[in-house]
Amino acid sequence: MDLAVLWFGIIAFFFIGYFVLDGFDFGVGMSLPFLGRDETDRRVLINTIGPVWDLNETWLIVGGAALFAAFPEWYATLFSGFYLALLLILIALILRGVSFEYRHQRPESQWKRWFDGMIVVGSAVPALLWGVAFANIVQGVALDHGHNYTGTLFDLLNGYALLGGLTTLLLFFTHGVVFVSLKAEGDIRVRARRLAVRSGILTIVVAAAFLTWTVIAHFSVALLVLAALAAVALIVSWILNLRGAEGWSFAFMAVTIALAVVSLFSALFPNVMPSVPHPENSLTIANASSTETTLTIMTWVAVIFLPLILAYQAFTYWVFRKRVSRSQIPAEPAEPADPEPVAA
């Protein structure tokens, strides 16, 4: 088997893992204004992902490192051409991570509101921009003969890309709300399930429009089948959530996201960065990959360590599998009172 093609599939696998796992993290973060009626609710929401959110983000780090090693030309073109968009994603992820760690360091409500706002923004911005970035990669961007991006940030904000961003935003939001219904107890669980029903309808409509546009623009039988399966999985997830089967609903949301990513990589193949309007400048699997020796070494490393990583991740989720309830949240220390005025 061609190792370059194999690593194209492995890169797709890493992004599937990242979007499925960090995707529901983004959704939980974005749900704070909708489900967090008080401080205890917000702490329940954050605690559903507290033990795993940083572990989920490692999929992005591993995927980026693998992309750099296996396809250095793709990595160089992507990170230079999409520099501003990726920088915004990085800043948003930093703000979100800092907020998780610092929001509980002081008892003042204003302090917590600031960090809660950064969690929402730090979740919504990557959820939107990842869709914009991948839609542009699939659609194709302006590259010169040296495979350098010649457009601007605003060229990336076209109709197809924005629809892709809205699709990932809604997919991750619904995915996260379903996760809350799976991990929380009591009233917040019921409200999360109801919110997932409402957001799921909008997600189905927007995702169907984006997948239809993608199939029409890059038609192949494989893409059509994958897009249809993703649509069916999304609808099944919505029905299961409506019936209160949170676990199965979450599983089918994960399948939906995985099939959507595979659909995009299928539409991309055999390119990794199509060039428009000059297809002769496109980056392909062949001309963007590393040497055979490098790919061989990487393959052996992946064979040894990838199963260990998957086993550790599965073990972590098993350890933290129990639901979170309001009764498990310890009382917050009272806010410090304003100092009494000193008599003259």
TrEMBL record:
It is found in: Cell membrane. Its main location: membrane. One of its GO terms (molecular function) is electron transfer activity. The chain crosses the membrane at residues 6-32, 74-95, 115-139, 159-183, 195-213, 219-240, 247-269, 297-320. Keywords: Cell membrane, Electron transport, Heme, Iron, Membrane, Metal-binding, Oxidoreductase, Transmembrane, Transmembrane helix, Transport. GO terms for biological process: aerobic electron transport chain. It is a multi-pass membrane protein. One of its GO terms (cellular component) is plasma membrane. Its EC number is 1.10.3.-. PANTHER family: CYTOCHROME BD-I UBIQUINOL OXIDASE SUBUNIT 2, CYTOCHROME BD2 SUBUNIT II. Belongs to the cytochrome ubiquinol oxidase subunit 2 family. This is Cytochrome d ubiquinol oxidase subunit II. It comes from Leifsonia shinshuensis.
